[in-house]
Amino acid sequence: MREEPRQVTVWRTSGLIGGFAANRKRRLVALDVTLFFASFRAPPQPVEPSEASGEGGGVLLEVAERRRASSMAAALILRASVSLMHRHGKVCADWLARVSYRAMASKTPVGFIGLGNMGNPMAKNLVKHGYPIIACDIFPEACKEFQELGTQVTDSPADVADKADRIITMLPSNPNAIEVYIGTNGILKKVKKGSLLIDSSTIDPEVSKELAKEAEKMGAVFMDAPVSGGVGAARAGNLTFMVGGVEQEFDAAKELLTCMGSNVVYCGEVGTGQAAKICNNMLLGISMIGTAETMNLGIRLGLDPKLLAKVLNMSSGRCWSSDTYNPVPGVMEGVPSNNNYQGGFGTTLMAKDLGLAQISATNTKSPVPLGSLAHQIYRIMCAKGYAQKDFSSVLQFLREE
User: Locate the 3-hydroxyisobutyrate dehydrogenase-like NAD-binding domain: which residues (predicted)?
Assistant: First the structure.
């Protein structure tokens, strides 16, 4: 007979101020202030164990029990009984407000691994939202700026996992992600049971699935959450996150992701976030080549590039590559084309993402002729010195041919 799965109720309680009493003779006000983290706002919600996580939903139960313990500990730490002398008919409201603000602003540390062009501004936005960061990057110089801000920096992903039970990774490729998670000094060497691991790298969906399985063995939850929007959106906190993983954990992930992005979309089980990102980047790679070809043709026909861009962006040819990330220098400000194609999204990364799309297309027997051609163009660019330039440098490449 099949045993009914257990349920764990995670209590989330809003701030409560109570125990108010006044003594007329001494005009003494006793305030019993009980403060809880602002994140625990929703009414009680049962957490359903997943059959995929084993008998009784072991991993999800571990996560829920750990979170419940954390919330109870937070409540005990933040409870304060304060007696204030009330001589002039006023409680020291400003002082009380400061105590409340400091207590409510207290947040548990978040590990962040990978502080490159995208990871750097993403981590900074977490700091802006009050989250202490425990940072790590293979290049020590990438951590220097965060050290100067007072951020704790560790030597390895394993050390991050030892100090934080919520970790975000932003890495360049499959090998990097595999090394950071299951390598000799990887996250899973010291990960705590119940930890939430969010990978915002763009990697093969199958690799995400394998990492999720390894994390589950250690009692942790892995979610893939690749991003779209580029460095500008990362700085502004306007990224789009495509999330794959256990649905019951989506809200916990969203709490952090909304600090870095304006759109957080749940796509389904582990790997679906990566699938959505690969499709998006294949279209982006194709459209950037098309935009560069179009702008180059128009310029050679005697059109002013700003005028041509204006026409395109009022017409059916409009796309992100034309109206937000135009590849022609001088057409718009704040984009890599205005900085000799430095910064932004490297050509080598676009070639890598299109390679992932080709693998997925082969595995699913999906014809992608334009995706294949785009992949070849970016690979040739990498071989001709454009690897570290932004992928919009395809305009320069076309002008040389």
Answer: 271-397
Query: Could you tell me which residues come within 8 angstroms of residue 224 by beta carbon, excluding any fewer than 6 positions away?
Result: 199, 203, 205, 208, 212, 243, 244, 245, 270, 271, 272, 273, 274
- Catalytic residues, by residue number, are 277
Predicted confidence band at 107 (pLDDT cuts at 50, 70, 90)?
confident
| Alpha-carbon 253 to chain mean position | 9
Distance CA 72, CA 269 (A): 30
- Could you give the residue ranges of the DSSP H alpha helices within 24-91? 58-78
CA-angle at 75, arms to 69 and 81, nearest 5°: 150
Residue type, 141: E
Name the helix (H) or strand (E) containing 376: helix 369-381
Q: Which of 267, 250, 318, 251 is CA-nearest to residue 290?
A: 318
C-alpha 135/C-alpha 157 separation (Å) is 9
Contact status, residue 146 vs residue 135, Cβ threshold 8 Å: yes
Q: Closest by alpha carbon to 10, among 61, 50, 58, 45?
A: 45
Q: What is the pLDDT of residue 392?
A: 98
N-terminal to C-terminal alpha carbon distance within the chain: 71
Centroid of chain to Cα 41 = 22
Residue in the structure block whose two tokens are 């007979």: 1
pLDDT of residue 296: 98
| Cβ contact 172:116 at 8 Å | yes
| pLDDT (average), residues 30-37 | 37
Q: Check residue 67 and give its pLDDT.
A: 54
pTM of the predicted model, to two decimals? Answer: 0.74
Q: Two tokens at 21?
A: 């009493």
> For residues 206 and 24, which has the higher predicted lDDT (pLDDT)?
206
Tell whether the torsion through CA atoms of 279, 282, 286 and 288 is positive or negative: positive
Helix (H), strand (E) counts: the chain:
15, 14
Two structure tokens written together for 190: 């010291």
Tokens of 285: 């790679």
pLDDT, tens digit (0-9, with 9 covering 90-100), for 233-291: 999 999 999 999 999 999 999 999 999 999 999 999 999 999 999 999 999 999 999 99
